[in-house]
Amino acid sequence: MNATSLYDALRHMADSWGLLAMAVLFVAFAAWPFRPGARENNEAAAKMIFRDDDHGE
């Protein structure tokens, strides 16, 4: 197998399966915050920036 055919094989794999893998990962990462058990973590993260706030004093 020479360098050109190896390159073509790797490029074909990246064009097909690589794109599919990136799409699946994107959907998984985008849906992760909306899973049922994530509400407490999301609320804690939203309030984290106000934890050390001394209310204008």
Commentary on this structure:
By secondary structure, the chain is mainly α. The protein has one domain (3-50). The chain is 67% helix and 0% strand. The chain has two helices and no strands. The chain has helices at 3-31, 39-47. The longest helix has 29 residues, at 3-31. The radius of gyration is 22 Å and the shape is elongated. The protein starts with a helix and ends in a 10-residue tail after the last helix.
Brief overview, please?
The chain is an all-alpha fold. The protein is built from 2 helices and no strands. The mean pLDDT is 87.
Q: Topology, please?
A:
Blueprint: H1 3-31, H2 39-47
Rg over CA atoms: 22 Å
Total strands: the figure is 0
Measured by DSSP, the beta-strand proportion falls in under 5%
Ends apart, CA distance between termini:
72 Å
Short key terms for the protein model shown above:
mainly alpha, single chain, elongated, 57 residues, 67% helix
